[in-house]
């Protein structure tokens, strides 16, 4: 529809409201019209109502008021299967595929019968692959595939189900630039072939590039609803935040001369992803790890923290050599914010007060043995106030919070536990522009207080805005050590791809 033509409305929401039993209004009279064959962008800050809207549209939750029309008919879905049967599929950020099965078996997972790999299925798989424009081996095990290819299999699964409309929730949040390009090209190709998309992303450049129309949600309302051609990134940011957001300026210079070496990594190796990595981080430094997906940046953090028990080499914190396990790292003063906050960073079904006090529970217990709930609750209230966590109170569950607020809880776990080394893996992945700026300011605050920070981030512009030094990681090695103030995003992209001066061998610092 980029040619400016219009089409009939496939999905329409009129006055949709969603109020939960506790009185929270997540949606407040939302109107939305998605035209057949369009790529319709849906954006908004974390907590704006996007997730609730998706759940209502896809049959996970009923609406409290208003109507949802599908192909001209008002519908009330009984459950997600009802919506799916009508032709509406949802692909979530964390793709729910079965890792031990093949690509073919995952694409046709929903089909009943004794055989999982028939000749008919193979023929249909090949037709779908041709339509998608991305080659996938039908027999490859999904566990061996990168995240980008798994996204493509999820799209194939939706097509196999006969989806007329595919909702994609943050499909590129954890992808490298090359993988993002593959997914975006596939969406555009399928839209041109007649498939309709609702595309949700925090990457506004993606929204402006591939969508035909954009709806911005804020506080449960549709604040903006316009053709993409009329919009700029600045207007989108203002609509999302309700105010102008100032760009984050570059961080200050390197750590003061003579600053203590807080983290010393020497000859770190791991069976997968890390080869002879050595570097030091001084008090007050923010060292970025820049690399493409699969470069080894996350594996370096795992090796330092002891999460990879097979890693070898020497890691010292404040001069003290660490044993190879996370418990020893935490005891020595290391904090770790993992990329997957849901499964690794939080206990989503435990209240905030239990999550936040967990790493330092001994100090908030009577004689370090009997937990004191009053002290834990007070700490949670302090964290909510200090970090601006939008939650009903200490008893709220992380699973009830938006992505940005849940990530602040992960930071809060360590913030009051006197940790001197902070290891951050994609700390702003899947959060809105406002929460992203707040998290980056928090990272700067940690350094200003004398902590040593190592941050792995796939967004090089963001990394340069906060880091004082950048280590370029490629093939599990550190291949360059750069002053962030004197480095451009374009240079990092070239070095990460093995182009230019960064193609030389490992640099020990």
From TrEMBL:
InterPro entries the UniProt entry points to: AAA+_ATPase, ABC_carbohydrate_import_ATPase, ABC_transporter-like_ATP-bd, ABC_transporter-like_CS, P-loop_NTPase
Location of the ABC transporter domain: 11-244, 257-500
UniProt GO MF annotations: ATP binding
Coiled coil: none
Keyword annotations of the record: ATP-binding, Nucleotide-binding, Repeat, Transport
Keyword Acetylation: no
PROSITE patterns (alphabetical): ABC_TRANSPORTER_1, ABC_TRANSPORTER_2
Name of the protein in question: Sugar ABC transporter ATP-binding protein
The organism of origin for this protein: Nocardioides imazamoxiresistens
